[in-house]
Amino acid sequence: MFGECHAHLFMNGKNYREAVALHKNGVQEQDIREKLRQYQEQGVTFLREGGDVLGVSARAALLAPEYGITYRSPVFAIHKNGHYGGIVGYGFDTMKEYHQLIKRAEAAGADFIKVMFSGIMDFSREGHLTEEPLDRQDIQEMIHIAHEEGFAVMAHVNGAEAVRNAVEAGVDSVEHGNFADEECLWAMAESHAVWVPTYVTITNLIGSGRFDDAALLRLKERQGERIRRGYELGVKIALGSDAGAFCVPHGQGILDEYRELGLLLGAGEELDEKFEAAENEIRRRFVRG
Question: Which of 37, 114, 169, 285 fits a 20 to 30 Å CA distance from 194?
Answer without folding.
Answer: 37
